[in-house]
């Protein structure tokens, strides 16, 4: 694809493939002669149809049925591309209370803060239940197990563990569409979304990733004010300045947003990293003892660095992170001024792997109050 002349192709999120496989498997469980090669399903969000190929379909010796699909995230730098998803369906037993019991098998991550519950989130549950419930024969219940054979290995290349998800990948997503957030050509598409939002709202929230989008709603932020920036934070801030937006609140995981404090405005890890170095520099700016700075510099992740600070003194961690978010504001405003010659009010809020707010700048608090649902 020539990104200069073509728009990047969107794909679908993992829950869509898991659901399509479950539909095919249930249809075969009900009727052994029904062997669909393509499943057409309603994505619900957005309410559009999608055609998902079924790669393999087979009954298993225990009476269950297995359907295999393959992930297609579109023109996206996504490590799940072509990875197989197995959807296994079986009739429930008399002890089952829910009509559809959804389980995570091998390769589906476990949530540490939820006693090891499978990392299968609301959209996936809603999508699967919506499509399978009407197919259930009267008096029957169903057990659905989703398996990602390569999930455990792929998870080692993600930041899932930083968010408390271990041993696999999440069936995460609030939508059935996988936008090419890092692919060449996506920036213009993101700018178009920003222009539309800026025409309706004077204050916006830039969310870095799905976790930021989800948390924004939990915090009471107006969903219409949210803009998903992916890794194009700098160009999106400049565009906001060009559109004369009154203010932008940056909401993101501290392990991602910290890069802005070091002047890195394209946050994909293939472009630049230096997160531990930036955290160590913020510590030095707050007179943190040298042995602690050295430990943070040698930590494997910034999440581990945060825990080192908290282990020393909760007040110390707060002081360092407050310094960090104020620095993010300053660097972001300077970045826009350098490219636009005019100011943009920027505030920031960062959260940890438990999705708890670690720090918010003074401007971040002011902007937060501007974007709350009335």
UniProtKB/TrEMBL annotation:
UniProt KW keywords: Cobalamin biosynthesis, Methyltransferase, S-adenosyl-L-methionine, Transferase
Pfam families xref list: CbiD (PF01888)
The organism's place on the tree of life at top rank: Bacteria
A biological process term (GO) from this entry: methylation
Matching InterPro entries: CbiD, CbiD_sf
Gene3D superfamilies in UniProt: CbiD-like
Pathway stated in the Swiss-Prot or TrEMBL entry: Cofactor biosynthesis; adenosylcobalamin biosynthesis; cob(II)yrinate a,c-diamide from sirohydrochlorin (anaerobic route): step 6/10
Keyword Iron carried by entry: no
Enzyme Commission code: 2.1.1.195
SUPFAM superfamilies documented for this protein: CbiD-like
Family to which this protein belongs: Belongs to the CbiD family.
Official protein name in the record: Cobalt-precorrin-5B C(1)-methyltransferase
Gene coding for it: cbiD
């Amino acid at each position: 694809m020539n990104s200069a002349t073509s728009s990047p192709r969107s794909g679908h999120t993992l829950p869509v493939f898991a659901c399509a496989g479950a539909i095919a498997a249930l249809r075969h469980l009900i009727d052994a002669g029904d062997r669909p090669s393509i499943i057409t399903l309603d994505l619900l969000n957005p309410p559009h149809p999608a055609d998902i190929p079924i790669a393999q379909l087979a009954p298993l010796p225990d009476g269950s049925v297995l359907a295999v699909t393959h992930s297609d995230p579109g023109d996206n730098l996504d490590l799940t591309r072509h990875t197989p998803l197995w959807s296994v369906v079986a009739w429930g037993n008399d002890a089952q209370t829910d009509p559809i019991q959804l389980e995570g098998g091998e390769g589906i991550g476990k949530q540490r803060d939820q006693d090891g519950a499978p990392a299968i989130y609301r959209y996936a549950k809603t999508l699967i239940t919506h499509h399978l419930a009407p197919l259930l024969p009267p008096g029957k219940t169903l057990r659905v197990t989703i398996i990602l054979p390569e999930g455990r290995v792929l998870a080692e290349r993600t930041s899932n563990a930083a968010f408390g998800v271990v041993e696999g990948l999440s069936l995460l997503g609030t939508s059935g569409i996988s936008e090419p957030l890092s692919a060449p050509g996506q920036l213009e598409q993101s700018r178009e979304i920003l222009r539309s939002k800026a025409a309706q709202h004077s204050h916006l929230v830039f969310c870095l990733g799905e976790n930021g989008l989800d948390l924004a709603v939990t915090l009471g932020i107006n969903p219409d004010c949210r803009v998903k920036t992916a890794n194009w934070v700098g160009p999106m801030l400049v565009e906001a300045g060009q559109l004369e937006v009154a203010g932008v609140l940056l909401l993101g995981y501290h392990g991602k947003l910290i890069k802005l404090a070091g002047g890195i405005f394209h946050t994909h890890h293939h472009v630049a990293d230096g997160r531990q170095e930036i955290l160590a520099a913020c510590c030095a700016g707050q007179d943190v003892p040298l042995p602690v700075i050295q430990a943070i510099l040698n930590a494997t992740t910034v999440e581990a660095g945060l825990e080192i600070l908290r282990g020393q003194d909760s007040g110390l961690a707060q002081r360092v992170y407050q310094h960090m978010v104020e620095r993010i504001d300053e660097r972001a405003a300077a970045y826009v001024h350098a490219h636009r010659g005019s100011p943009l009010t920027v505030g920031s809020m960062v959260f940890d792997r438990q999705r708890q707010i670690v720090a918010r700048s003074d401007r971040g608090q002011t902007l937060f109050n501007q974007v709350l649902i009335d």
